[in-house]
Amino acid sequence: MGAEADFEVNFTTKFIVKPTNPMVDHPHILSLSNLDLLSGRFPVSYFYFYPNEPHDLHAATDFSSIIESLNTSLASTLNSYYPFAGRIVPNQHTNEPEIMCDNSGVLVVEAHANIPLKKLNFYDLDQSLQSNKLASISPDFPFQVQVTLYTCGGVSITFTFDHALGDATSFGNFLLSWSEIARKKPVSCVPDHRRNLHLRARCPPSYHSSLDQSFVKCTMEEIMNIPTAKTLIKRLYYIEDSSIKHLQSLASRNGKKRTKIESVSAYIWKTMVTAIDTKSHGMCKMGWLVDGRSRMHKKENQINPMSNYIGNVLSLAFGEASVGDLKQGSISDVASIVGEAISKVTNEEHFLDLIDWIECHRPGLMLSKVVLGQGGPALVLSSGRKFPVAELDFGFGSPVLGTVCSTIERIGVAYMNQRSSAKGDGSWTVSSILWPELAAALESDTIFQPITTAHLNFRL
């Protein structure tokens, strides 16, 4: 499971890929929507790992072909996803970020690792990501790619996006379109870049007063210097389908069937209270990222007009409960608290209020108070069950693992991001940023298993 102590990555080539024939051929500004301003400017990195066939003895040649194919298909993909090839610049009057769509291009980095892929430490992400070995990030490019060759001929691809470009749904649509173009398949998503058409504030703007307690205006400096009371570590876990179904069975009582996310969240929340200082904190919070696309402009029996929207359409649902209630309550009891908290934001009125709240506090960036570290111990869970994993085949096979991890050093909450495993058998991988006591508590059971190559479909 562990990586070799001398794991090194040698960066060999850097080049810029530009759209071959962009839909918009002249530079223009794409203003961010109010919900873009809520998501901040965090870098988000997606990691995909592709083992080599054991009989393939031409890794170097194959790697050249892979790079060439990726560059060609990326240039074609950027034709319709042209903002990803732009630059993010401050507005001269408001200092708010905006996207300059000038076809500057995407930075692609070619690298070589000195170990076989099976020796990489998938569990301890701190070790694998140290010194930016798998995600070298340049502040000049809002989207960049690193392709790394391992001594076995296997490859990893890291995609790093500035959050201002969009959310997980946006990035998933982009990556899936790229893989479809690489395999000369029909493209399943025609991107919609009209950010202020769908998400404009009402006139006059109005919102529920509770939003003042949940969100706050902040600066980029405050985001980059979030106070962290605890050391946070990055880990990757594997959850078997049988464990998920077992938790769902425990959470579903009295005729109410709980979702898998609600059920696993209840287990996590109950585990959290065993790993915090209960003398200092009598309450404990948990949060969930909610995509508003299916909640906005919803009309019965009609295709959702925002299904292909590229940008941020996220809000945060938060639940708070006493340490005593979480300890004493059953999985079903806690799942009820989870479901109630999430239900408060899974409606159009909440998102309209949130857009209006941001409108009343512009210019500037906005963020959840809890994410900024204001409000005691908390954990945020993001579900990526629809994010493409096994589907991300660029013409040289499907990955054995696709996951996400933020490369930022400071975050005010513990954070988990769930993905379907590449096996397609209902199991999950969960990328986590946790305080050590919480990691130890989760690993004391058999549900959150530290991921190993045994959990992955390696062709070795």
Automatic annotation (TrEMBL):
Transmembrane segments: none annotated. InterPro entries: CAT-like_dom_sf, Plant_Fungal_Acyltransferase. Pfam families: Transferase. Belongs to the plant acyltransferase family. This is Anthranilate N-benzoyltransferase protein 1.
